[in-house]
């Protein structure tokens, strides 16, 4: 048993620091279990892999420092709690590794007329490496491209894509929520909508596969993240995702939802969205493919997503090269194989009555929060005017 009175100061401090890290890692594990929407709680949804790293370091440190010999079994109890936290975090991350079976099967088609490829790129509005971003997109040459955080400058940088992708639907903005959409495939009823925030657009369209017969409904999203400078809660982000999910649930057609969701695949909201919409995640069984933060290899998680209906299988999925943004672009090639739809639907997560009730409540809260913010903004405007 360590005699703390006789330990050198540096070793006593090491014990204290390790214990502090242990408590912090446990708190970071427990907080996301709360269904609260405050940003300082929801932020711990993101770095699960990093939290596992801290937990493992603390466990090894505690063993090396002799915590198993502490009186009253306090040390053993703490080590057990840390081990349980590792197992729980691992359980949440496991589906997005190659250790589980793929939720969506690999493509079995060679017919290019029933394939569709797309790329999603968050350019980082203040990034000025437009030529590099254009080159990466041209080399990947997907059928569909969506670029977000795009203002008028970025539109001019990416405008050459219109030569090969003539079907477009743009909404460049200077508030970091601009959106550019380019398609080689024929578009129908392409609309830019503002679902909750009056300054956050989303894309709603149908594209025709090269076979000339099959139409695919697509949604491009980029909701605000739960962060002090953006949104104090995750309420409207969650509501936007679930609002789209409820819309999809009412339709029976090939569907793709993609974009910078400002959420990770293993969060409660993402899982609820998949159950409500009936869509599937190509990452399951294929790996994390973390897209953010591009500048810090030890602080990355999957923030940019593609969710698809069971009509599709995956031909290719990869992270594209660095373009100067804080996000890596993501690319996926899908094959339309409706003959295997029923088999793949067995891997879908089904929503129950509780899920629908929770989704409806979150959507209601999202609109209420938007109304409150609009009222506050109107009051500030009136004060300035007077």
Summarize the model shown.
The protein has 386 residues and is α+β, with helices and mostly antiparallel strands.
Order of strands across the biggest sheet?
3-4-2-1-11-10
Global structural class: alpha+beta
Principal-axes geometry comes out as globular
Could you tell me how far the N terminus lies from the C terminus, measured between alpha carbons in angstroms?
71 Å
* Number of helical regions: 10
The pLDDT mean sits at 92
What is the highest CATH level, the class of the largest domain? Alpha Beta
| Order of secondary-structure elements | HHHHEHEHEEEEEHEHEEEHH
Beta-strand fraction estimate: 15-25%
Helix content: 25-40%
As for the CATH topology of the largest domain, it is Deoxyribonuclease I, Chain A
Main sheet record: 6 strands, mixed
Number of distinct beta strands: 11
Number of structural units classed as domains: 2
Uncertain stretches = none
> Looking at this structure, what is the CATH superfamily of the largest domain?
Endonuclease/exonuclease/phosphatase
Specify the CATH architecture of the largest domain. Answer: 4-Layer Sandwich
């Amino acid at each position: 048993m360590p005699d703390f009175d006789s330990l050198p100061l540096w070793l006593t401090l090491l014990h204290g620091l390790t214990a502090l890290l242990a408590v912090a890692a446990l708190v970071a594990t427990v907080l996301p279990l709360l269904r609260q929407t405050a940003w300082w709680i929801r932020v711990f949804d993101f770095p699960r892999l990093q939290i596992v790293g801290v937990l493992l370091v603390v466990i090894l440190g505690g063993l090396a420092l002799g915590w198993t010999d502490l009186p009253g079994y306090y040390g053993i109890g703490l080590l057990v709690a840390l081990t349980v936290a590792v197992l729980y975090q691992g359980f949440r991350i496991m589906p997005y590794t190659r250790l589980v079976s793929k939720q969506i099967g690999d493509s079995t088609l060679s017919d290019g007329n029933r394939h569709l490829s797309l790329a999603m790129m968050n350019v980082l509005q203040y990034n000025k490496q437009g030529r590099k971003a254009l080159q990466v997109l041209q080399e990947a040459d997907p059928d569909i491209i969506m670029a977000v955080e795009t203002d008028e400058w970025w539109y001019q940088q990416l405008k050459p894509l219109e030569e090969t992708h003539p079907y477009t639907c743009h909404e460049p903005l200077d508030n970091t929520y601009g959106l550019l959409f380019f398609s080689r495939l024929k578009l129908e009823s392409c609309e830019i909508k503002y679902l909750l925030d009056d300054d956050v657009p989303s894309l709603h369209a149908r594209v025709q596969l090269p076979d000339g017969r099959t139409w695919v409904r697509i949604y491009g999203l980029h909701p605000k993240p739960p962060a002090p400078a953006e949104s104090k809660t995750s309420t409207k982000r969650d509501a936007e995702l679930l609002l789209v999910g409820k819309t999809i649930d009412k339709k029976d057609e090939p569907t793709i939802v993609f974009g910078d969701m400002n959420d990770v695949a293993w969060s409660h909201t993402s899982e609820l969205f998949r159950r409500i919409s009936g869509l599937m995640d190509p990452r399951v069984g294929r790996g994390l493919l973390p897209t953010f933060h591009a500048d810090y290899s030890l602080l990355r998680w999957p923030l940019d997503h593609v969710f698809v209906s069971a009509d599709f299988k995956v031909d290719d999925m990869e992270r594209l090269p660095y373009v100067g943004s804080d996000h890596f672009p993501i690319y996926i090639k899908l094959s339309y194989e409706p003959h295997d739809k029923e088999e793949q639907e067995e891997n879908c997560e089904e929503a129950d009555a509780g899920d629908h009730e929770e989704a409806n409540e979150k959507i209601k809260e999202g609109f209420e929060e938007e109304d409150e913010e609009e009222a506050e903004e109107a009051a500030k405007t009136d004060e300035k005017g007077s």
